[in-house]
Design a protein that fits this description.
Helix 4 runs antiparallel to helix 11 (241-252). The protein has 280 residues and is mostly helical. The protein has one domain (2-279). The chain is globular and about 45 Å long. It has helices at 2-25, 30-52, 61-87, 90-97, 100-112, 119-137, 141-160, 170-192, 206-228, 231-237, 241-252, 259-279.
């Protein structure tokens, strides 16, 4: 029951963050969006850290190294997620993203010797078939590739968080990740967009403030989840994101999926349902 409650809270927070990312993704480049969003998120995380009572419980050097690695992977995942949203429907990007559940399962088996279940391979085959159908029938291979890169990076980045968060407070993990992503965004802008003023960004963007708020809320909750639940359970929690994405795509973004997209998405979700019934 506790896992279900955390799943709803985490997915609701991230869903709301993604809604505002989608709303702001067509207004500026991914690096600019992430940079401004990260300024807000670091500010919120810093205030939360100062008021949490965990300020002096700093991560060890080993855990900090893991946090930086996870931050790097998640930063890449976020960058390609924003790019995918600019080239692909919200529903398709979200469905591809929840395939990170399989990475959680695989790493759970590898890192923590969780039970291997042969049904996992059938579930993964169903979902991969769904992606393949969309790839073969879609003209937008660029957007799908960006969504896949994002899903893989986020899958590994978040799953590996279970290592440092076993001995690190959730808010410290969140703060390190957000600061690292801010630095990555700044470096990307220096390399790709040198005319952009890092010292004078336009901060009067309420959509990106909303992204930062819901991201921090979701990040702290998911970091707590990594301290409470197995990777197997955490992988399945991503499935709760699917009904959110369908509703948002239809009612907010007015997206109309073609028959092949419906078939592909249905196979992805069918695979995840098989995964839940047989593996969790």
């Amino acid at each position: 029951m506790i896992a279900i409650v955390f799943s709803l809270l985490v997915n609701t927070a991230y869903f709301l963050a993604d809604i505002f990312i989608k709303l702001g993704s067509n207004q500026q480049s991914p690096a600019r969006l992430i940079y401004i969003r990260s300024i807000f998120s670091v500010a919120i995380a810093s205030l939360w850290l100062l008021s949490s009572g965990d300020l002096w419980q700093t991560p060890s050097l080993g855990n900090l190294s893991w946090l930086l690695l996870c931050s790097f992977l998640c930063g890449i995942g976020l960058y390609f997620y924003v790019k995918a949203l600019q080239n692909l429907s919200f529903v398709n990007v979200s469905v591809i993203g929840i395939m990170g559940a399989f990475i959680h399962y695989a790493l759970g088996v590898y890192l923590y010797h969780e039970t291997v279940n042969s049904w996992f391979f059938f579930a993964a085959l169903l979902s991969c078939t769904g992606i393949l159908i969309q790839w073969r029938k879609s003209k937008n291979h660029k957007g799908m590739l960006e969504a896949l890169i994002s899903a893989v990076c986020w899958g590994f980045g978040y799953a590996l968080l279970s290592i440092p968060l076993a001995n690190t407070s959730a808010i410290w993990g969140t703060w390190v990740m957000e600061l690292s992503i801010l630095v990555m965004a700044a470096f990307t802008l220096i390399m790709q967009d040198p005319a952009y003023s890092l010292l004078r960004p336009k901060l009067n963007q309420w959509k990106l403030m909303a992204v930062a708020f819901f991201t921090i809320l979701g990040s702290v909750l998911v970091n707590i989840s990594y301290q409470k639940f197995s990777l197997n359970i955490l992988g399945f929690m991503q499935l709760a994101f699917f009904p959110y994405s369908i509703l948002a795509g239809y009612f907010i973004f007015k997206e109309k999926l073609n028959a092949y997209e419906w078939i592909g998405n249905s196979l992805v979700v069918a695979g995840l349902v098989v995964y839940y019934i047989t593996c969790v």
